[in-house]
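agent> Task received from the user: take the single chain below, predict its 3D structure, and emit structure tokens. No templates, no multimer pairing.
agent> Plan: (1) validate residues, (2) run structure prediction, (3) serialize to tokens, (4) report one or two observations.
agent> Step 1 OK, no nonstandard residues flagged.
tool_call: predict_structure(input=
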Amino acid sequence: MTKNIIKIAKKVISTEIEGLNFLSKKINNNFIKAIRIIKKAKGKIIVTGIGKSGIIAKKFAATLSSTGSPAQFIHSTEASHGDLGMISKKDVIIAFTFSGKTIELNDIFIFSKENKIPLIIITGKINTNLKNISSTFIEIGDIKEACPHNLAPTTSTTSMLALGDAIAITLMNIKKFSKKNFYSYHPGGQLGKKLLLVKNIMHTGKKLPLIKENTFMSAAIIEMTKKRFGCLGVVSKSNKLIGIITDGDLRRHMKNGMLDKTTSNIMTKNPKTINENIFAIEALNIMKKNKITQVFVTKNNKPIGILHIHDCIELELS
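)
tool_result: status=success, residues=318
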């Protein structure tokens, strides 16, 4: 019984893998034409479908939107009852219908034709009617479902899902959609944490542990204790960061009349700094590589923030 269960599961997966391999051979000039139509559109990408194809279409719309290509899913039945009003002439429509015989899509097809809205049809096998009404089409092919009766949408939905991902990621690359762009659409959750920028978590304003050059160390120690970062940034008269004093520096100079010296005598010159627009996880790697526990964030050599290793450590563990 156990062996049979595993055999069935593996058969399903291998059948769907065969379907994906077959799909990869169907990526041709029609795919290129579809990408060009979508890229050229000045409005939204309207995605539609019904049943299992509709579920895939909804996921596809979400993937597009999160990767820099604004998209909206419209249920094909609801489109016939007023939702066609959501579609403008600047949009492009992508319809999922594996059978190619989904009558619920007829109204949205006619609407696209009457208003000269580009229509891309993703289907199992194209027929003359669909070919005539579409701007272009992408065929998945006559593939075998993983269902033993070749009925339940399995391989077909997996293939449509993969094709949707291929379209979304191709557009993402063409648009040069970066990690930073991706973060702006995903500020929450674990993914958001991984893509946080330094400017999102750095300490700023009055929290900054800063002191002027040539200030006596007696005053510097008080300021360092007050700010609790274990360091002080030393700034020039023009407020540029010229050095840093750490707990380690204090220990090294403790026996050398330190309190009678100034910050300029004790500081380490040209400290390591970072940009506010790098990822926090990158900042963590910089601190680990340089064996430091805090780093100043500068802009035009002026300190605008500070980051402690503890601010970033959670990101590594997430």
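agent> Step 4: summary for the user.
The CA atoms of residues 119 and 127 lie 15 Å apart.
agent> Done.
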